[in-house]
Write a structure and sequence with these properties.
Strand order of the largest sheet: 1-2
Distance between the termini: 36 Å
Shape: globular
Strand content: 25-35%
Order of helices and strands: EEEE
Helix content: under 10%
C-alpha cells in the first residue's frame, strides 16, 4: 500500500528566486508571486490526475512570494 501521509515542507530549502514548480533533485520547489493572496494551497493528485491526494497550505514567505 502506498504511503499517503502528507509530505512535509522544508522551508530551509525554499528558493524564492525560482517561480513555479521546479524539481531540485531531492524535492520540488513551489513558489509564486501575489500582491493580494491571503492563502495559497498546493493540491496534489494521483498520476492520472483524477484523484486529489493532499491539499496543503503553502508556508508564508516574504515579498509577495
Amino acid at each position: 500500500m502506498r504511503d499517503l501521509s502528507p509530505p512535509a515542507f522544508d522551508a530551509s530549502q525554499a528558493r524564492s528566486d525560482i517561480l513555479g514548480a521546479e524539481f531540485l533533485g531531492e524535492g520540488t520547489n513551489f513558489a509564486l508571486f501575489s500582491d493580494h493572496a491571503t492563502k495559497v494551497e498546493l493540491c496534489l493528485f494521483t498520476e492520472d490526475g483524477q484523484t486529489e491526494t493532499h491539499r496543503l497550505p503553502l508556508p508564508l514567505m516574504e515579498g509577495g512570494i
